[in-house]
Amino acid sequence: MAKPTPQQASFTELTPLCKALGMIVTDVGVGTATFTMPYNPALIGDPDTGVIHGGPVSVLLDSVSGLAVIAHPDNTAMTATIDLRIDYMRPSPAGQDLTAHAEVYHTTRTVAFIRASAWADDETKPVAQATGAFVFAKKAAS
Amino acid sequence: MNAKTEPVQNIKRRRDGVLNAYAGRVPFFKYLGITFERKGDELTGVLTYDPKLIGNAVVSRLHGGGTSAFLESTATITLGWKTIWDAMESGEFDIEADVIKLPPLPKTISITTDYLRPGLPRDAYARATITRAGRRYASVQVDAWQDHRDVLFAQSTLHFLMPDA
Fold first, then answer.
1. Nearest CA to A97 among A41, A55, A38, A54?
2. Which of A45, A16, A25, A39 is nearest to A97 (CA)?
């Protein structure tokens, strides 16, 4: 866990959909990343409760996973999502910002496997969790 | 009114009115640029291209999360639309009301998206197939394409919790 470098911090700024959703990189480690995303009424999925749609949560989990892959010390290139599974565990509380954390838990020469979680105020009560596979270009052994 | 001879303008007004009210309640659809086209009971989700949908600005590709959000939206509305169809056709909804009162949308339990090809900076389309519609749970499969209907760029499988009967 460490403060993101300026280059890492600029990830959300340089990714149009992350920027539009107001995501901020708060932490980047060894194959890990943490983002925040502010609550925004334009993202509501259920107008009766003010709960945001699952879509922006997907974007958050996909994005934070992407930076975790890029931040992996063996990574040499950009990445792309191969597949992503998201479980929606509870409604995202109306009016509250979200935090998401992703970690790369395994890499092969060509694939990085990630898991990620998003929560409002309590990390032990996730709104959604994700697992996925991402394109990975591993550094050749020296 | 005999259903077989009902004037076409009445049918279209009812179906389009209910669909617009059903999908129009979700602010996020407007935010992302998602609309629905109807042919009879068949729906096609349309994601209108906008520069904010880009995920990789270097090569200009759609963001995978945005694509997934579009597929989830198309699956939700297609499933919900099927479940309210009979009630709509039998005139249960007051389509003259300022706000048409409609049942809540199904809730997503999980979504798995496979990214088959890069999403290009142009409109995308999606169509969903309901693989199982139970009283409590439903499963839906969605295909997304851009230029060619049979060249998919993403595909999702979703499970839903149905609104209380």
1. A38
2. A39
Specify the pLDDT at position B141.
98
**pLDDT at residue B6 greater than cutoff 80:** yes
Phi, psi of B20 (to 5 degrees): -60, -40
Backbone angles phi, psi at A40, to 5 degrees: -145, 120
Phi then psi for A7, rounded to 5 degrees?
A: -65, -40
ipTM, 2 decimals? 0.95
pTM for the complete prediction? Answer: 0.96
Q: Please, what's the b/e burial string for A28-52 (b: 16 or more CB within 10 A of its CB; e: otherwise)?
A: beebbbbbbbebbeebbbbeeebbb
Beta carbons of B119 and B61 less than 8 angstroms apart = yes
d(CA B164, CA A30): 45
State what percent of residues in chain B have pLDDT above 90: 92
User: Residue B165 pLDDT > 90, yes or no?
Assistant: no
Helix (H) or strand (E) holding B84: helix B64-89
Phi and psi of B72, rounded to 5°? Answer: -65, -40
Q: Which residues of B touch A53 (CB under 8 A)?
A: 26, 28, 69, 72-73
Our CA-based measurement puts residue B39 at a distance from the nearest CA of chain A, in whole angstroms, of 25
Q: Which of A20, A44, A60 sits opposite B28 (nearest CB)?
A: A44
What's the DSSP call for residue A43? Answer: G
The whole-angstrom separation of Cα B119 and Cα B155 is: 12
